[in-house]
Specification:
Elements (H helix, E strand, L loop, with lengths): L2 E4 L20 E6 L2 H5 L5 H20 L3 E5 L10 H12 L3 E5 L4 H13 L4 E4 L8 H8 L7 H12 L3 E2 L2 E2 L30 H14 L15 H14 L1 H4 L19 H6 L4 H13 L5 H25 L18 H4 L5 H13 L4 H15 L3 H11 L5 H12 L16 H7 L20 H12 L1 H4 L6 H9 L2 H16 L3
The structure holds flavin-adenine dinucleotide, ligand DLZ and iron/sulfur cluster (SF4).
Flavin-adenine dinucleotide (FAD) binds next to helix 10, helix 12, helix 15 and helix 17.
């Protein structure tokens, strides 16, 4: 009598629900590296190295904890290339009387798991993924009957539910949100912490060769690869963040500096999303830092909000919106992303910085994703599905449940405001305020028209003019439309002409 427990690449937690309560002597844990997962988009090479290496190290950890692990490598000549094919082969090998898995993290794989129930002659049990605070039904119950879904109100419920940063029924510090304090501009006089770099060990080096052999044509490089690939090292990065970066996380959360890819961010998302770090445990540590007087409230609250607010909220939206969410395109955007999204070769310095570090590290922080690459794609009217596939491929932390709502909803406004109350569209002035990029750019951020004008300016006004029908009635867009109305028709036409001319150069 054997229970087969498939564990996917984003379930690398010893306390994943599928393993809980299983008898180690009667269970086989199955981990499989499959082409299907490596190719549903052409993932960044560093992302592939991270996931395969973390899976291999996790298998070692499970074995050391007494589990019987069946691990299928990508280059196993018998490897069928898919989860379903590998499950079928594992059933042949182990003749299980039951299969038990934790629910999948995305619609594509969920549908596959549901099909197993009909396909195989072995009962399949699916358990919910309780690494999150809110279950799917809890989120739906919260959303039901609300005219508008807003993260802030959901977040307050999650604070109450988790007890994080609460004094009884009241939020610590007397207010729920300290975001207003979190918009400082960084400068080079600040001491900027660097994330830990973990030199590749033997397993990681083997995986690097494997990835180069099979996926050499994928985007990105592994030259600077320094991600943790074990829970122990991920916890070292967590401690490093808490001790050296968290105190200023809030202040400089929205800041950007040339050649500083990480600033005061945690660089923990790949570990949280694949299971090496427990998000709630991390939030408790952050709260402890605040209560011990080591970090200010705006840092602790700002960080905890990202995890129990945004992260939980986007997951809720993803599952509630259904598998067709990916096809939404409220603004009817159809343009292809320019080639420089794959090379970083552009004379727009902000874009070359954000894309350049993405190619090198499979990482960019939130404001770069939202206000540089995302903003540019939104302004040129890029097809949201194509933008989504780019984000899903290039970041080490990207899984559809978290990437899609952030990209399609928050960044491209393609869901018409289901997730965010207004489009995150901005001209060069915003980028100049929050970064030092413009100083090193060949364009003039203050110019709107002419050969040296910052392209973001005309593109921004073209976006406002082009989408007037859809956006003018949005109360949060009142100010941009007031400014647009103040312009003469000649000035409006000149801006739109400038934008059109620029977009033609993108090919
Ligand atoms: P920090 O800035 O240190 O933040 C701490 C943690 O908060 C993160 O590790 C993450 O777990 C969580 N978090 C912060 N913002 C968000 C958010 N908006 N949604 C969900 N969790 C959040 N995040 C992903 O994990 N995977 C993605 O594929 C992803 N795609 C994105 C695409 C776009 C267009 C945008 C605008 C944002 C995306 N994000 C995604 C959210 C955010 O950019 C990353 O979580 C963050 O940059 C990860 O870096 P960090 O660990 O240093 O985060
Ligand atoms: C992202 C990814 C990749 C590239 N490869 C694998 C893999 O070979 N085996 C695996 O179990 N998981 C992989 N993953 C993560 C899965 O895509 C992720 O676990 C599912 O999308 C969950 O729904
Ligand atoms: Fe980017 Fe414009 Fe600034 Fe250049 S001037 S860095 S294109 S915002």
């Amino acid at each position: 009598m054997t229970i087969l427990v498939p564990v996917f690449g984003d379930q690398l937690s010893l306390n994943i629900s599928s393993l809980r309560g299983q008898d180690k002597r009667r269970s086989v844990v199955l981990l499989v590296e499959v082409h299907q997962e490596a190719l549903y988009v052409k993932h960044h090479k560093a992302k592939l190295v991270y996931i395969f290496s973390a899976m291999r190290h996790h298998a070692e950890l499970l074995r050391s904890e007494g589990w019987d692990v069946d691990y299928v490598t990508l280059d196993d000549p018998e490897n069928s290339g898919s989860f379903t094919g590998e499950l079928a082969r594992a059933i042949e090998r182990h003749s299980p009387h039951q299969i038990c898995a934790t629910e999948a993290g995305e619609w594509r794989v969920k549908e596959m798991l549901v099909s197993w129930q009909d396909r195989f002659d072995v009962p399949v049990t699916l358990r919910s993924d309780d690494r999150f605070l809110a279950s799917h039904s809890e989120f739906e119950a919260w959303a039901k009957g609300r005219k508008q879904l807003r993260m802030e109100f959901f977040y307050r419920d999650m604070r109450r539910k988790s007890g994080l940063l609460m004094d009884g029924n009241e939020p610590v510090g007397g207010q729920w949100n300290f975001d207003i304090e979190n918009r400082k501009r960084a400068n080079r006089d600040n001491t900027i912490p660097r994330p830990l770099h973990f030199p590749p060990d033997k397993i990681t080096r083997e995986v690097m060769e494997l990835v180069e052999t099979y996926f050499g044509d994928h985007i990105g490089s592994t030259k600077s690869f320094g991600f943790a690939v074990t829970r122990g090292d991920a916890l070292n990065q967590q401690a490093h963040f808490l001790n050296h970066a968290l105190a200023h996380f809030g202040d400089y959360q929205d800041a950007m500096l040339s050649d500083e890819p990480f600033l005061w961010h945690s660089i923990l998302s790949p570990y949280i999303n694949s299971g090496l770090i427990d998000p709630i445990e991390l939030c408790k540590q952050v709260e402890r830092c605040y209560r011990n007087g080591n970090v200010p409230i705006n840092a602790a609250e700002g960080f905890i909000r990202q995890i129990i607010g945004w992260r939980e909220y986007v997951r809720g939206i993803y599952w509630m919106a259904g598998p067709d969410y990916v096809r939404r395109n409220e603004l009817g955007a159809t343009r292809s992303l320019p080639d420089f999204y794959w090379t970083g070769q552009t004379d727009m310095h902000c874009l070359s910085q954000a894309i350049g570090q993405t190619l090198e590290h499979a990482y960019a922080h939130h404001i770069q994703r939202l206000m540089i690459t995302g903003n540019f794609a939104l302004l040129i009217g890029a097809n949201p599905q194509e933008v989504h596939e780019w984000y899903l491929a290039v970041y080490a932390d990207a899984y559809e449940w978290v990437e899609l709502p952030n990209t399609l909803g928050m960044s491209q406004f393609a869901d018409g405001g289901m997730l965010a109350s207004k489009p995150y569209a901005a001209s060069g002035a915003y980028i100049n305020r929050m970064s030092d990029y413009c100083r090193a750019c060949r364009y003039e951020v203050k110019s709107k028209t002419g050969p040296d004008a910052c392209p973001f300016n005309a593109l921004y006004w073209d976006f406002i003019g082009r989408n007037e029908e859809k956006l003018r009635s949005n109360p949060r867009m009142a100010m941009p439309y007031k400014n647009w109305d103040r312009m003469s028709p000649e000035d409006q036409s000149a801006l739109r002409r400038q934008a059109r001319k620029f977009v033609e150069t993108l090919g």
